[in-house]
């Protein structure tokens, strides 16, 4: 039986639960602000609380893999459990791993996050295309088989990204636009939404590129990084209906109280609904 594509599942989740992605970023300062130690026990408590508070109500949860990997195998075990429990509660899990390599190594990354038999199988994963878009083929193919998604870095919010992403290709397009055009080709004909998304920072102002990729647009930078839901139409223009705004610290700082986390996430979702026209 062919699995339902990620793009269709994401569209339904955003329509029913609200267009919001909440990051799970257990870095040391957040653990401390929750009164937790920067150790496995603190990591586990933090992660369990976020999943308990939000997995049954937000469209997407986005664990940042690095903050779990820093604790070694025990941290990865916490991540595995969080992925399974979040998916069981109905949230789509986007693994923020930003993997990028070539050949069999990229294939191994794809097997890690996009193979249904993997303990880290996620609904989608972030990847880096700057070894060439073709280097992502193992991930794109694996995602298509499992009904998962791939979010490709296009225009990131960090200032250093511009030296690569805004560089000009031989045909005059920016490298970011080259990547976006590849994504549009992958999504051609998909309904209601393609499964290959782009990562475009919400803090960019006018993105200055064509974002009509027929796929989701993950927009990090809402909240602590300075962007607000009201900024989204200016950045994304006509494509704003496909935006998945992502907030991490803006919600997580309201823990460890479960009701505080839920209220903060609900508030951001309401602000996005008010700012973004219904698709």
Question: Mind explaining what this structure looks like?
Answer:
- With 279 residues, this protein is of the alpha/beta class.
- It has one domain (6-273): Aldolase class I (TIM Barrel, Alpha-Beta Barrel), CATH 3.20.20.70.
- Helices cover 43% and strands 15% of the residues.
- The protein contains twelve helices and eight strands.
- The chain has helices at residues 6-17, 28-33, 40-54, 65-69, 73-88, 103-114, 137-146, 162-165, 175-187, 232-236, 249-252, 258-275; strands at residues 21-24, 60-63, 92-99, 124-127, 149-155, 196-200, 217-222, 243-247.
- Helix 6 links the parallel strand 3 (92-99) and strand 4 (124-127).
- Helix 3 (40-54) runs parallel beside helix 5 and helix 6 packs parallel to helix 7 (137-146).
- The longest helix is centred in the last third of the chain and has 18 residues, at 258-275.
- It starts with 5 loop residues before the first helix and ends with a helix.
- The model has no long low-confidence stretch (mean pLDDT 95).
- Its EC number is 4.1.1.23.
Which features characterize this protein?
alpha/beta, decarboxylase, 279 residues, OMPdecase_type-2, single chain, EC 4.1.1.23, Orotidine 5'-phosphate decarboxylase, 12 helices, TIM Barrel, orotidine-5'-phosphate decarboxylase activity, eight-stranded parallel beta barrel
């Amino acid at each position: 039986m062919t699995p339902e594509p990620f793009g269709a599942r994401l569209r339904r989740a955003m329509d029913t639960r609200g267009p919001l992605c909440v990051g799970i970023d257990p870095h040391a300062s957040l653990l401390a602000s929750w009164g937790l130690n920067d150790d496995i026990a603190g990591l586990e408590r933090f992660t369990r609380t976020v999943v308990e508070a939000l997995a049954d109500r937000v469209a997407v949860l986005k664990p940042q893999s690095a903050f779990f990997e820093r604790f070694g195998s025990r941290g990865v075990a916490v991540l595995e459990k969080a992925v399974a429990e979040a998916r069981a509660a109905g949230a789509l899990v986007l693994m923020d791993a930003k993997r990028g390599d070539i050949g069999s190594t990229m294939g191994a990354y794809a097997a890690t996050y996009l193979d249904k038999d993997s303990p880290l199988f996620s609904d989608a994963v972030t990847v880096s295309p700057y070894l060439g878009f073709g280097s992502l083929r193992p991930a794109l193919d694996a995602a298509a088989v499992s009904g998962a998604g791939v979010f490709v870095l296009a225009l990131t919010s960090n200032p250093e990204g511009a030296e690569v992403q805004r560089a000009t290709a031989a045909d005059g397009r920016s490298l970011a636009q080259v990547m976006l055009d590849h994504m549009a080709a992958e999504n051609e004909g998909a309904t209601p939404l393609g499964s290959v998304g782009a990562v475009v920072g919400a803090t960019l102002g006018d993105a200055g590129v064509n974002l009509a990729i027929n796929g989701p647009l993950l927009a990090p930078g809402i909240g602590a990084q300075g962007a607000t839901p009201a900024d989204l139409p200016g950045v994304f223009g006509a494509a704003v209906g496909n935006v998945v705004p992502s907030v991490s610290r803006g919600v997580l700082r309201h823990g460890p109280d479960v009701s505080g986390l839920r209220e903060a996430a609900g508030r951001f979702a309401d602000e996005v609904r008010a700012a973004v026209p219904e698709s």
